[in-house]
Amino acid sequence: DLVDWQKPLLWQVGYLGEKYDEWVHQPVDRPIRLFHSDFLESLSKTAWYVVFIVWAPVVLYLSWVSYTSLAQGNTRLFSSFTTEYSIPVHKYYFPFIFLLGMFLWSLLEYLIHRFVFHMKPPASNYYLITLHFLLHGQHHKSPFDSSRLVFPPVPASLVIGFFYGVLRLLLPEVLGLSVFVGGLCGYVVYDMMHYYLHYGSPKKGTYLYGLKAYHVKHHFEHQKSGFGISTRFWDHPFRTLIPEETFEKED
C-alpha cells in the first residue's frame, strides 16, 4: 500500500522516508519498473549472457595488448621518481599483475557492496533514497528479477571507464592497463557468479553451494552483513561474516 505498483517506482520511493529501509528489505516476487521512459528502462535491464558477450572479448584483447606491450621491455616501475633505481616490469610478470587486479577487484566488490549499495540513506533525503533504490535497493526488493541481476553494459561502461582513468593516473600506462584488465575479468566473474547464485543449482557441499546459501542469508536474514559475493574472504577482516548456524539434534 506504500507504493503504486502500476507506476514506475523510482520516483515514488523517495517519499517513503523513514519507512523506506524496512520496506526495501521486504522482498517481493514480481518485476519492478523503474522509469517512465521505455528507453531508460531498457538500459536498466540486461540478460546475464550480455555481460559476458560484451566484456569477455575486451578482457582478451586488453590482455594481449598488455602482454605484448610489456614484452617490448620499456615499462619500469618508479621511473617517474628515479631512473637509477626504477624496476623493469617483464612480460613474465603479466599473469601475476593480472591476478593482482582480480584480487583488488574482490576488495572493491566488497567495499562497493557494503558502503555504497548498503548505505542507509537519511529518511529526509529524497534524492539519496532514490539513488540507493536505483543502485541496489530494487535488487533487494525484487531479488528474483532475472533482468536486473547483472550490471547493464551502458552504465557499467561509465563506472569501468572511471576506474581505468584512476589506474592510468596512479601507475605507468601498461602496468595500469594490466591491473585494470585483471580487475575487469574479476568483475565479469563476479557478475556471472551473482546470477548463478540466484538461479543456479550448485551441488551440495561445493564452494558455490556454500556461496549460494551465504547469499540467500544476506538477502533474507542478514542484510547488514555478508557483503562478499564471489568470496567471503573480506567479510572476515571487516567482521561482517554471517555466523554459521548450528542445529542441535533432537534426542
From TrEMBL:
Location comes to: Endoplasmic reticulum membrane
Q: Does the keyword Acetylation apply?
A: no
Q: Pfam families, alphabetically? A: FA_hydroxylase (PF04116)
**What cofactor is needed?**
Zn(2+)
What molecular functions are annotated in GO for this chain? Answer: fatty acid 2-hydroxylase activity; iron ion binding
Which domain of life, per UniProt?
Eukaryota
- What is this entry's stated membrane topology? Multi-pass membrane protein
Q: Which GO terms describe its cellular component?
A: endoplasmic reticulum membrane
- Ranges of residues in domain Fatty acid hydroxylase: 98-240
Q: Enumerate the transmembrane spans.
A: 47-67, 92-112, 149-171, 177-197
Tell me a GO biological process for this protein: fatty acid biosynthetic process
> Per its record, how is this protein called by name?
FA2H hydroxylase
Q: Which organism is it from?
A: Oceanites oceanicus (Wilson's storm petrel)
